[in-house]
Amino acid sequence: MLFNSYPFILLFLPAVLAGYFWLGRRSNRAPVIWLAAASLAFYAIGSWQFVALLLASIAFNYGIGYLLIAAELAPMQRRAALAVGVAGDLLVLGIFKYAGFAADNLNALLGTHVAVHILLPVGISFYTFTQIAFLVDAFRGQVAAYALPHYALFVTYFPHLIAGPILHHKDMIPQFEQEESKHPHAHLILCGIIIFAIGLFKKTCLADGIQPLVALAFDARSPSFDQAWLGALAYTFQLYFDFSGYSDMAIGISLMFGIFLPVNFSSPYKATSIVEFWRRWHMTLSQFLRDYLYIPLGGNRRGRALRYVNLMITMLLGGLWHGAAWTFVVWGALHGAYLCINHAFNALVPAIPSPLARPVRILGAVLTFLAVVVAWVFFRAERVDWALRITSAMADPLNIVLGREEIAALVQVTIYAALVWLAPNTQAIMGYDHGSRRVGESLREGRLRPLVLYGASLVLAFGILGIQSHSEFIYFRF
């Protein structure tokens, strides 16, 4: 079931909200069980054959977590329990996501013809990383004992289950335990609807609207310079509004339940460096990779050379997390190299004089964006050689077509670029602050109320009218 579908908007979401708040008048735990059951139903509608796997994963990790939290184990036993838990999670993820990739590469090396076709469970990357973080924190003594219904809801919570954000137990489970969120809050419901409407518009009108232009580069056998750049830029903006739209819709849906999700997307194309880009793009994944991979590898504590090695390892694995293909490995390697260059520049270049600060920031933003666009070509391409064909065309300014189709595409891409760089993001519009549990203060105080409400109604109407029957979110395949 998609957020941008009529059954979800008109049937599923209203029914789940009504049941949640009705039960909230009678019990503090019953709404949690209801929401967990509804989340499983949400998952089952599209991936019923993997519900048992999801439940088994929850039971396995909850059991390991209980051993780490409540059982009085010796230090070696605790380490063994953590190792079993993390290894079990990674083994399941590896089988379902990477077995086919490994078989293909072995076939290429050995000349064999072993065929491995395993259907990828939707959301497995997200709920696996979520639970690994839980186990590691439990081992570190940073997790309290949680009731099974609250833990199950933490893993299955449907606004995040399919495409993130990667949730952290300390942010979510305490909210599920609070009685206050079980009662309807008119202001939060209104703000949630507005944020959902903005996200729906981004997805159905903006992301889906520019998607046809992606074919200029990625479906052409020999794209010209302008076609390669227009197609690459079209995908750059499609992915931006697709992921931004999903992130907004997830936050908006959750807010209707009185639950605050972490911000996962914050105008990343406004970043003036790759380091800043990764603080704005898929922010919860960046935090997970930093806290549970980069820092345990040693981070920057063992000298500059090993820091760069750790960055490369982290980003290579981050690329593989997105998909089992060499294109994702190259994408991760590019971003690893970008980060190494960025950190080396910061270490070697003296402080920028104040008069040059603004021009340098603008130049940094342009270079960062161009580097990101080139990397997205590998992220989107089916094969590395196809990506190289596109990047070669992007480096050949003598081969230009610029016909009627290309001029129309240029106009559309320019409009999207203006929206990305000049328009405020949803957090700025709505004053959404996950950390302080605040949202929509201008709306609450009556300031901008008519403008926000009328604008949200219009955006929601256009978003609903723009719904297409097969318009999946790009991150669904990860």
Q: What tags apply to this protein structure?
A:
478 residues, 2 domains, globular, 71% helix, mainly alpha
Helix and strand arrangement:
Elements: H1 6-24, H2 30-47, H3 51-69, H4 75-110, H5 124-139, H6 148-156, H7 158-161, H8 169-177, H9 186-210, H10 215-218, H11 225-256, H12 274-280, H13 283-297, H14 304-322, H15 326-348, H16 354-380, H17 384-394, H18 404-422, H19 426-430, H20 441-444, H21 449-465
Pathway: Glycan biosynthesis; alginate biosynthesis
Main location: membrane
Organism: Bradyrhizobium niftali
Give an overview of the whole structure.
This protein has 478 residues and is mainly α. The protein has two domains: 6-182, no CATH class; 186-471, no CATH class. It contains 21 helices and no strands. It has helices at residues 6-24, 30-47, 51-69, 75-110, 124-139, 148-156, 158-161, 169-177, 186-210, 215-218, 225-256, 274-280, 283-297, 304-322, 326-348, 354-380, 384-394, 404-422, 426-430, 441-444, 449-465. Helix 2 (30-47) packs parallel to helix 6, helix 11 crosses helix 18 and helix 13 (283-297) crosses helix 14.
